[in-house]
Amino acid sequence: MKEKVIENLKIAVNTEIEGYNFYIAASNTVKNEHGKNVFRHLSKEELEHISALTAISNSLEAGGGWLSYKDAVAMGGSVKRGAPIFLKENELTKRLKQNPTEISAVIIATETEEKAVAFYSGLLKTAAAQDEKTVLGKILDMERNHLKLLRWEYESIVKTGFWGDFMEFSVEKERE
Asked: Rounded to the nearest 10 degrees, how much is the dihedral formed by the CA atoms of 121, 10, 175, 170?
């Protein structure tokens, strides 16, 4: 059982790395400053997820238990040095290169976050330990907030031709 959890965490880390790479590429692709900031913000949160999930995976592999999200992020500080500094091309970045538009970036990001929500929802359903449920629930909530933000931006771009100047909700406030 523990091996499956570790395997799932490694899948999650790789998925978050792909998301991080995509969001950096998207922030470099879009022209609008607000759009750049949206993708930069998302890339920072993906990097935080990478750090937390890696620290938890390392703890479990070493025979320890689940760490709280906050502790995992704090411990992940040393993990961040091993974070993906050099951007690697992946399916998401290839799709963006084929159609390097702002709307394409938002569509790809939305699809990615929908998959992340489904993935973490599945992990949460099979979670056994309370600490595991708490961490996965927190990450799931953050992914849902990413999805809300991207859907809102998509609607704004499609309806007005512009990125939204303000959000109807704050991603940061919903995280607290």
From this structure: -90
* Whether 151 contacts 143, CB under 8 Å: no
The closest of 155, 145, 151 to 120, measured between CA atoms, is 145
pLDDT tens by residue, 108-157: 999 999 999 999 999 999 998 899 999 999 999 999 999 999 999 999 89
Domain tally, the chain? 1
CATH, residue 82? 1.20.1260.10
**pLDDT < 70: residue spans in the chain:** 77-87, 165-176
For residue 145, give the 3-state DSSP assignment.
Answer: helix
Q: Measured between alpha carbons, how far is 22 from 66 in angstroms, rounded to an integer?
A: 28
| Residue numbers of the domain that contains 39 | 2-175
pLDDT, position 87: 67
Question: Do 26 and 105 touch, CB atoms closer than 8 A?
Answer: yes
pLDDT the model gives residue 174 = 46
CB contact set of 174 (below 8 Å; sequence gap of 6+): 141, 145
What integer pLDDT is reported at residue 2 of this predicted model? 85
Q: What is the b/e burial string over 85-98, where b = at least 16 CB atoms within 10 angstroms of the residue's CB?
A: eeeeeeebbebbee
State the Cα angle at 26 between 84 and 146, rounded to 5°. 85
